[in-house]
Specification:
There is one protein chain. This protein is of the alpha+beta class. The protein contains nine helices and eleven strands. It has helices at about 1-15, 35-40, 60-70, 105-120, 130-140, 150-165, 205-225, 230, 295-310; strands at about 120-130, 170, 175-180, 185, 190, 195, 200, 235-240, 260-265, 265-270, 275-285. The strands form three sheets. Strands 1, 4, 7, 8, 9, 10 and 11 form a seven-stranded mixed sheet that branches.
């Protein structure tokens, strides 16, 4: 039992003497716990206090005498902070250039804000195998008829709108109305902004007629010679960014219309026969007040069926 007590005392002594004086260099004597507590409590520098203990050891009495004599805590070392660097460059170094907003850009901004702020947008998407459409286009080209993929989409969309007429609707003053005519607005980029000239009665036109009409309207749009009747109205809109390499996107409804189709670029994927083919994403954005999800899906299925049947 005595041996255990001696060993415990040795361990306690070892822990006690392991605490060294703050800032002491090599050869400094250890501080006792009582001395260390006073040094820490009063934020003192042990090296600056005269020691009277054996072999220069600092005693508790030395600390108390130092304090009674008016001893003060060591002055804290103050590091001068580096000047703050502003995350925003000074106005004198900024080189911004104000751009004039054209009237057409103001109208576009107003209508987009109105659309997103007042229309409950809902979305549905489908991948369409474009292999048949591309072959159909090549066949017509050999016969002398140059048509685009967009022409094929316009014609197929018009037929699908006849099959699912609720997608060919407008919303005005809280009233939804199915349009009697399939008039498809086609988004065209111009130097002054996006404009949507209208292919009227698209369902009753041949695909060659659709192509010729779109070309005439696009030329007028880019030259700024469209008449109001040629871009105001419409019952459905198609926006195609495939020619810019965009594979998929979601468009904003063009009020008072209730739906818009976003067409992406073709990409290689495995078809139903597990062979490589070209597919494209068709994203329908629709007004949830007028068109239900099942009708949106029905319309997309009709569109896909007509394109893939070519």
């Amino acid at each position: 039992m005595a041996a255990h007590r001696i060993a415990a005392c040795v361990r306690l002594f070892s822990r006690t003497t392991s605490v060294l004086a703050e800032g002491a260099g090599p050869g400094a004597l250890p501080l006792s716990p009582a001395v260390r507590r006073l040094v820490d409590e009063h934020h003192l520098n042990a090296k600056s206090i005269p020691a009277t203990g054996p072999k220069g050891r600092l005693l508790k009495g030395d600390i108390l005498a130092f304090l009674d004599a008016g001893g003060k805590a060591a002055a804290p070392v103050v590091t001068k902070a580096a000047p703050a660097v502003s995350a925003t460059p000074s106005k004198s170094k900024q080189k911004f250039e104000d751009q004039t907003i054209t009237n057409i850009r103001r109208v576009i901004a107003q209508r987009l804000t109105e659309s997103k702020g007042t229309i409950p947008h809902a979305y549905a998407s489908v991948a369409v195998n474009m292999a048949g459409a591309l072959k159909f286009r090549q066949t017509l080209a050999k016969e002398g008829s140059k048509i685009s993929v967009n022409d094929i989409v316009i014609k197929a969309a018009a037929s699908a709108l006849r099959e699912v007429p609720v997608v060919n609707s407008t919303w005005r003053d809280g009233v939804a109305s199915v349009s009697p005519s399939v008039d498809i607005s086609v988004a065209v980029a111009t130097p002054t902004g996006l404009i949507t000239p209208i292919v009227t009665r698209a369902d009753s036109r041949t695909i060659e007629d659709v192509n010729a009409t779109v070309q005439v309207l696009a030329d007028k749009a880019k030259s700024g010679t469209l008449k109001p009747a040629e871009f105001q109205g419409g019952s459905f809109t198609i926006s195609n960014l495939g020619m810019f390499g965009i594979h998929s996107f979601q468009a904003v409804i063009n009020p008072p219309q209730t739906a818009i189709l976003a067409v992406g670029a073709g990409r290689v994927a495995l078809g139903a026969d597990e062979k490589p083919t070209t597919v494209a994403s068709f994203d329908l954005c629709y007004d949830a007040r007028v068109i239900s999800p099942d009708k949106a899906a029905e319309w997309l299925a009709s569109l896909r069926k007509r394109i893939e049947a070519l």
